[in-house]
Amino acid sequence: MNSRSTLCFVSTAPAALTLAHKSAWTAPNRPTRPYAAQSRRAAFRSATIRMDAAATAEPSAKRETHEFQAEVSRVMKIIINSLYSNTEIFLRELVSNASDACDKRRYLGVTQGKPVDGLFVRVKADKEKQLVIIEDNGVGMTKSELMSHLGSIATSGTAKFVEAVGQQAKGDIAQIGQFGVGFYSAFLVADRVDVYTRSMQEGSKVYKWESTSASGYIIEEDPADEEAKPLQEHCGTRVVLHLKSGHLEFLENARLQALMKRYSEFVDFPIYAWEEKTEMEEVPDGEEKDEQGNQKMKRVPKTVADWVQVNKQKPIWMRRPRDIEADEYKEFYKTVSKEFDDPLAWAHFSAEGDVEFRSILYTPSMLPFELRQDMFNNAGRNLKLYVKRVFISDKFEEFVPRWLCFLRGVIDSEDLPLNVSREILQQSRVLRIITKRVVRKAIDMFKEIAARENKSDYETFWKNFGRYIKAGIIDDPENAKDLSELLRFYTSSSYDKITSLQDYVSRMKDSQKDIYYIVAESKLAANSSPALEKLKAKGYEVIFLTEPVDEIAIENLSQFKCKRKETDETETTFKLTNVSKENFKLDEEDGEAQKEKLKQWQEELIPVTEFMKSYLNKLVGKVEVTDRLTESPAAVVQSQFGMSPSMERFMRANSQASGMDEDLLMGGTKVLEINPNHPIIKDLADRVKADKDSEANKEMATVIYELALLSSGYALEDTGSFAKRVAKLISEKN
After folding, report:
1. DSSP label of 251
2. How far apart, in Å, are the Cα atoms of 216 and each of 221, 241, 347?
3. 241-255 per-residue burial string, b: 16 or more CB within 10 A, e: under 16
4. Which of 181, 300, 535, 729 satisfies CB 3.0 to 4.6 Å to 540 for a cystine?
5. What pLDDT is attached to residue 314?
6. Which residues neighbour 156 within 8 Å (Cβ) at sequence distance 6 or greater?
């Protein structure tokens, strides 16, 4: 069934009130807006449950009882438990139905040469009778339509309507209700539903459809109910919900108004809520007079009620980008994001073809508050999903990848079902297409920020959202290449200003084949690392990775492809190389003389390396002589598959929770490299030659290792013992 396409309502207001507020009901003349939606069947329509009713006439010819052939109670349970996750959805569904009914009437009026204005939807709660009434002045229903649309579940009246107007008109009209079960969401909160309706066809009568969702329904012709009287002169439909005892919260008009503003703010037709408020009124204060003989007055509170329009704002994303001013985009961003500052950038686009949707994406100028403690906090998501202008959710994790959770804006789909759930999204081909397009547009938006002449804009972006770009490289290999162009880092040559990998490549030496980087806790620690001494002496630039996510992102990326020079015709692939790894070699080959000298040092210091390896065997995997050090006596570097200082700290922090043995983080993964030209190493060589096993030599070897550990960015296990050893060495020298 499709109640959206068939339910329509008309005012119950007294004549005086109607006249007093006539302007509220009359919509301005406006042409029929072309719709881009293309009618599609819902996925579950193939499993339609027909409930063809067999009529059993009562003694009165005007009142007929119809029994459902299917097990309605079982079907209702499926609808309530499977399709809708929270009860407040009923109002979204019924307002959407009413909007569809207005849409039908407007469309038919235009095609018949009789345009219709003043179409509306109104919602009101009656506390005294415990009723919620949803009404519109749309197309209405005949008796046969009542039986067809409300007598069977998953039979879509809207889909039939689109089929009836033909393939050519599909692009001109888009009703929300193509999914067959929206009307029955009323039974989430009501134990009885009455539908009063009158078709726009000439000579139509008023009919009442009544059901408790148990075993059948009743159709009555020309009912004498008070609720039917407004339809004697006008077409339309009124849905009257008799609320269950557990859902009396919906008797508050303010609650209904808030729900309509949340879910139906951008529906095409005016939606009105009944609002009561207190005003102060001046009345005579008894018979007292003032000094001038005038009647004394006093102010007393007075409760007044009136209809107020909920959806005053029109959906900006439905307009053409060239027709929208920058200030309008900024104002809409503040509305949708609840922020007070202007966005850093936005992208307004649409997709047509097999999948149709419109979207406006915003990049905030500041990191949202909810994401400051937890960068992937689901509460920080605020990219709103609409289906044909009806709000669905802003918390679907499946809709955009987590590394884009900071985006703000709207996505309005013409193809997803209105009762979309997390399970439906996980299996949706439409979702996969939308997600791919949204990710592409988001990356393009970030690239536009990076290309601006005002470089501070991208610096602001990187400061707030750089971690998310790195997370994207880890999570989204398909887009890693594009995201790598957005990466920014500090380097040994660009210490105070972030630089891109492309700019780094443009400054590389002609002989350099790899991009060099080092992992450290801070810029200062990276810049003073012993592993950089030879590189800096020879004028090589090294990238600083100072955040925990940096190392994982770069290892996942592994290479960067770009043109070395702007004049190059083809791109070159550059390997990303960690300079603090064991066996790191510069791209430029050392001369034969240097190689011979290193070989000589290695042979001369064999006693030292063997002694230190024997004594420090639980702490390091190897002890080697190197020529990469120019100032420090020693350095600790990673073995080929060892952990960097940052990764080791991360693993230590998580070892207790994961049950990992911390001893596994220690020996076997580190390599101690010593500088053969440093006085301390020469002194130790002389000591080992004189007395290899002396305690003083062991103390000295330990201090050398601990100094190398600290200068390379690793943490000391026992800082107290280290301090005592240093103090002892100083006192011995004195």
Report:
1. G
2. 17, 17, 51
3. bbbbeebeebbebee
4. 535
5. 79
6. 1, 2, 5, 41, 42, 45, 177, 178, 179, 180
**What average pLDDT does the segment 84-106 reach?**
86
Residue-wise pLDDT for 464-523, tens only, equals: 999 999 999 999 999 999 999 999 999 999 999 999 999 999 999 988 999 999 999 899
Query: Tokens in use for 364?
Result: 């905030």
Contact 333, 365 (CB under 8 A): no
Q: How far is CA 507 from each of CA 102, 278, 504, 545, rounded to the nearest angstrom?
A: 65, 71, 5, 19
- d(C-alpha 349, C-alpha 359), whole Å: 6
Query: With left for phi above 0 and alpha for psi between -120 and 50, is residue 43 left, alpha or beta?
Result: alpha
Task: Choose among 405, 398, 396: nearest CA to 377.
Answer: 405
Torsion of CA 642, 644, 648, 651, to 10 degrees: -80
Report for 213-227, 449-463, 622-636: range of highest mean pLDDT: 449-463
Task: Give how far Cα 65 sits from Cα of 50, 72, 278, Å.
Answer: 18, 15, 46
Question: What is the C-alpha to C-alpha distance for residues 262 and 392, in angstroms, rounded to an integer?
Answer: 9
**Taking a C-beta distance cutoff of 8 angstroms, is the pair 350, 357 a contact?**
yes
Non-local CB neighbours of 31 within 8 Å, separated by 6+ positions: none
Taking the C-alpha atoms of residue 274 and residue 257, their distance in angstroms, rounded to an integer, is: 8
Mean per-residue pLDDT, 589-611: 85
Contact criterion met (CB below 8 Å) for 19 and 244: no
The interaxial angle of helices 548-557 and 455-475, nearest 10 deg, is: 70
DSSP state at residue 2:
-
Residue 637, pLDDT above cutoff 80:
yes
Give the strand order in the sheet containing 499-500. Answer: 499-500, 488-491, 543-545, 514-519, 572-578, 559-562
Query: Model confidence over 122-173: pLDDT tens digits?
Result: 999 999 999 999 999 999 999 988 887 776 654 444 445 445 545 444 444 4
Whether 63 shows a pLDDT value over 70: the answer reads yes
- Which amino acid is residue 46, in one-letter code? S
Smallest CA-to-CA distance from 119 within 142, 98, 94, 92 is with 98
Pair type for strands 543-545 and 514-519:
parallel
Query: What does the alpha-carbon distance between residue 481 and residue 486 come to, in Å, rounded to a whole number?
Result: 9
The DSSP bridge pattern shows strands 559-562 and 408-413 to be: unpaired
Residue 556 has pLDDT above 70, yes or no: yes
> Which tens digit of pLDDT belongs to each residue from 400-422?
899 999 999 999 998 877 666 65
Do residues 309 and 270 touch, judged by C-beta distance below 8 A? yes
Position 8 scores a pLDDT of: 39
DSSP 415-483: SS-TT--HHHHHT-HHHHHHHHHHHHHHHHHHHHHHTSS-HHHHHHHHHHHHHHHHHHHHH-GGGHHHH
> Which residue, among 88, 150, 174, 85, has the nearest Cα to 420 in the 3D structure?
85
8 A C-beta contact, residue 347 and residue 303:
no
Q: What distance, in Å, lies between the first and last C-alpha atoms of the chain?
A: 96
